[in-house]
UniProtKB/TrEMBL annotation:
Protein's UniProt name: Ornithine cyclodeaminase
Coiled-coil annotated residue ranges, if any: none
Keywords, comma-separated and alphabetical: Lyase
GO cellular component, one term: cytoplasm
């Protein structure tokens, strides 16, 4: 029997604090070799091709996570036209399976889990890169859902002394500051020019930009830059300025997201990757961000994170009897 869980039920089963711990454990699993995570497969529904005309793409993201002994897959995509229709940009579902016998155990909404674990990935990466820091300054591009989960997750690990926020829609940045002001220990500064937000221990871009708006001159020493958007937020020259490159999944990061164009042009390869987050988590490699270094960190997102979070949610739901059950084999 598979348990079916909707978004409102999931929200009662998990907190951001929980998700940060789960992501940390799963990166350790990657470093120890107990996570199996193939690269994403993508179905283009018109995001970068003329047909079909839906301005969307959808990814299949399978994984096995040893510490929860669960396999699964997330089917998730982004629909560019949805916000104009009052619909969420991200649509996702997660299916879990018992790896010992192939019995499907859960079908869960994946949108909330995606948003939460994406924020937690950044927070955990910063934990590895700033192991001695208790507080940080943060620059953030994008005042949407992902921007909120980024800050919520980082606040679980660090005090935020100052957050600089920029959004192409000033009213969105203002609303963000009003909603998030009570969630951080320091002040929030709304920036009127994008370069003003490119300052901090961590600078994070969570936008739909495709024009490489983040300039080389903005990437200052002492910064860990997180280009988290699915497309092209940074100029190629910006990325090539990095002293160190850290990723979550080498093969995936070289054919998707920020590094894709550089990899296809032969300007970045596996040899240019300093470390994975899994290697940093278990101490297989060492890297500490400093005031003189530019670190590029690309946790593009893996199915393992979704499977791990969904597995913990499912365990709790089963214990409390939350959600409906359904037998697909009838």
């Amino acid at each position: 029997m598979a348990r079916l869980l909707c978004q409102s039920q999931i929200s009662k089963m998990i907190t951001m604090h929980d998700v940060v711990e789960i992501i940390d454990k799963t990166y350790k699993g990657m470093g120890e070799g107990t996570v199996i995570n193939p690269t994403k497969g993508t179905l283009d529904l018109g995001e970068s091709s003329p047909y079909p005309p839906y301005h969307a793409d959808i990814n299949s993201m399978p994984a096995y996570v040893g510490w929860v002994d669960t396999a699964g897959i997330k089917w998730a995509g982004g629909w560019m036209d949805n916000p104009k229709q009052g619909l969420p940009y991200v649509s996702a579902i997660i299916v879990l399976v018992n790896p010992r016998n192939g019995i499907f155990t859960g079908v869960l909404d994946g949108t909330l889990i995606t948003n939460m674990r994406t924020g937690a990935q950044t927070a955990v990466a910063l934990k590895y890169l700033y192991p001695e820091q208790k507080s940080l300054t943060v620059g953030l591009f994008g005042a949407g859902v992902q921007g909120r989960t980024q800050i919520a997750a980082i606040s679980e690990v660090f005090d935020i002394d100052e957050l600089k926020i920029y959004d192409v829609a000033p009213e969105s940045a203002k609303l963000f500051a009003e909603e998030m002001g009570s969630k951080i220990s320091g002040k929030i500064t709304i920036c009127t020019q994008p370069q003003e937000a490119a300052q901090g221990h961590a600078v994070i871009t969570v936008t739909h930009a495709k024009d490489g708006f983040f300039k080389k001159t903005w990437f200052e020493p002492g910064t860990v830059l997180f280009p988290m958007g699915s497309y092209k937020e940074c100029e190629d020259e910006t990325l090539l300025t990095a002293d160190y490159i850290v990723v979550d999944h080498v093969a995936q990061c070289l054919h998707r997201g920020a590094l894709k164009d550089l990899a296809e042009a032969g300007k970045v390869s596996q040899e240019d990757i300093t470390a994975t987050l899994g290697e940093l988590s278990v101490g297989a490699k060492k890297l500490t961000a400093s005031s003189s270094s530019r670190v590029l960190c690309v946790p593009i997102g893996t199915g393992a994170m979704d499977v791990a979070v969904a597995s913990v949610v499912l365990q709790r739901a089963e214990k409390e009897g939350i959600g409906d059950t359904f037998n697909f084999a009838i």
